[in-house]
Amino acid sequence: MTNFAVLTDITGATEEISASHAFALSIVTYIGLGISIVCLLLTALVYTYFKSLRTTAKYILVNLCVTLAIAQLIFVFGVAETAVELPCKIITVALHYFLLSAFMWMLIDGLHLYYLFVVVFHNHEHNTALSL
């Protein structure tokens, strides 16, 4: 199983795969994570560098990008650290914290979009109806 499959396995049934498949999957995983981390950090840098892009939605996006980048970095450097129990627990807690933080930033982004579109348009409809 790949590293991500191990994280999401709820059955506990781990299938054995060949060494060549395991190597190929690990290469694809690390290349994909490397590209993702670079793009996330580049997005965060662009939005923090250009002042014209600084809005509430962009601050939320920057925080989400940084949180996901940190979680992926922890995963890349910590997924193989399972030999000693204490570092494994520390990495697990940090990974869960940053993934939970990413979900919270997604929730904040969703609420922000809700207030931007639904609440504003709902209030606009009531104001228009009152003016008629």
Give a brief rundown of this model.
The chain is mostly helical. The chain contains 4 helices and no strands.
Question: In one word, what is the shape?
Answer: elongated
Content of β-strand: under 5%
Secondary structure tally, helices: 4
Largest sheet: none
Overall average pLDDT: 84
Percent range of helical residues = over 70%
H and E order:
HHHH
- Rg, Cα atoms, Å: 21 Å
SS class: mainly alpha
Number of strands: 0
Tell me the distance between the termini.
Answer: 64 Å
Which regions have little confidence, pLDDT < 50, spanning 5+ residues?
Answer: none
Q: What features would you describe in this structure?
A:
With about 130 residues, the protein is an all-alpha fold. Helices cover about 80% and strands about 0% of the residues. The termini are far apart. It contains four helices and no strands. The model has no long low-confidence stretch (mean pLDDT about 85).
Which short descriptors sum up this protein?
elongated; 81% helix; mainly alpha; 4 helices; 132 residues
Which helices and strands appear, and what pairs or packs with what?
Layout (H helix, E strand, L loop, with lengths): L2 H6 L10 H31 L6 H23 L6 H47 L1
Helix pairs in contact: 2-3, 3-4
